[in-house]
Write the structure tokens for this entry.
Amino acid sequence: MRKYVIMGPQGSGKGTQAGLLARGFDLVHISVGDIFRWHVQNRTKLGTRIQRYMNEGRLVPDEMVSDVVKWRLDNHDWRHGFVLDGFPRNAAQTEFFLENYDIDAVIAIELPEAVAIERIQSRRLCSSCGLDYNLIQLRPHIPNICDNCGGRLVTREDDTPQAIRTRLLEYREKTQPILDLLREKELIVTAGLYCMVPRVLDALRLFPEDTGE
Ligand code: ADP
Ligand code: ZN
């Protein structure tokens, strides 16, 4: 069983890396942001409560986050493990997480803030299939059209300059400090800016795999 958490500032490509990692080890990719966006799109009760926080780039209040994470992890729908993307993001969430779940490693992607801003601003998303693009590295063949399904590319609603500033500030003030705590517990594997997933995979292979459930 492999249970990983992936952390990194906005624009670090953590979602992409989490996806690759999940494919590499046959893990379930659990993105808290994606679950929240699903609720907003489907106008669920939770969706209407969290929408404003998300659009403004603020962290959603802890009770709502831990309920969602608990519900998702209680599903136990993985055979080989999971990679959790976007949780925990502050001290209270970390406490809740460490008390309730065992994890093998936290992969922390590091990225200077200036690069993060540039990368977020070049990010586009297919409005139809959800595929991610990047106007610097991963351009669509036809401008603004998805290679995969022909859908229209859009910017995420929380990729406005104001919301980006808020999200990076939340990351610096609330998420960054928990890295120290996780480091003390010797759970951290650090991956640099241009680190490719194969390097992360290699690093993780150094961790003895826990064969128990
Ligand atoms: P990003 O990492 O670029 O902010 P995500 O897709 O991971 O994007 O998350 C989108 C939004 O969902 C966040 O800006 C925040 O409002 C909310 N969110 C996601 N995970 C958490 C969390 N662990 N705690 C609080 N809010 C969260
Ligand atoms: Zn598409």
Q: What stands out?
A: The helical segments are 14-25, 32-41, 45-56, 62-74, 91-100, 113-121, 161-184, 197-205.
